[in-house]
Amino acid sequence: MLHQRAKIEQAICTDAWDWGAQISYLYSLCRKYPKHKEPDQVEAKVWRIGRLYRNVNVRRDKSIGIPEDDFDYSKVVTAFLSHPEIDGMIDDLRLYGIDDRGTLHESLLLHNYMIEIILKKTGTEERALVSKYLHFHLPRIFFIYDSRTDFVVKKLLFLFKNNEAPSSIDESYNQFAENCMALRALINAKTGMLLDPREIDKVLLSRMKHLET
Q1: Cys-Cys link to 53, which of 26, 58, 110, 176 (CB 3.0-4.6 A)?
Q2: What is the pTM of this model?
């Protein structure tokens, strides 16, 4: 699949879960309200992003151990509102390009920081939620994580051993992002196509559906 341009194009032109309108709305919502100062704006973003992925059965990390239905998104809203410095961190990342190697390190630091501030409020590591939330604010930088696409990208690259990450970075997301960048580079080398994180997500979802059938 990875060396066949037609199949890659088909994957990125197909919405595996028919999310098109909702996805477009979330991008628009985060462009319109990029900051974390107004409670109603932050609540709208957190609730809609979290609930969308729940409703299409993108499961949270199995290690968390509590049902998605029991998760209190209001605590995430409170966490974000109490840390306005995340706006500056997001704005700093807007200066980077899709292929800038400095992007990865800075994005991992922000991802881990947001995991930690949510952890203090909820007691759970919201790795997947944070990756999705940040993706809609910085769609050219953040890859969309969940445990199933993590498995798929490892399978595509024949990688099942994680590298150790510094304590300031979430190890699981670090490995996932590194793998997505490696996959993007491989596709680029084989087809000449340079995919953004949403397109990489579509490729992984397409492959996942194929493996499940």
Answers
A1: 58
A2: 0.86
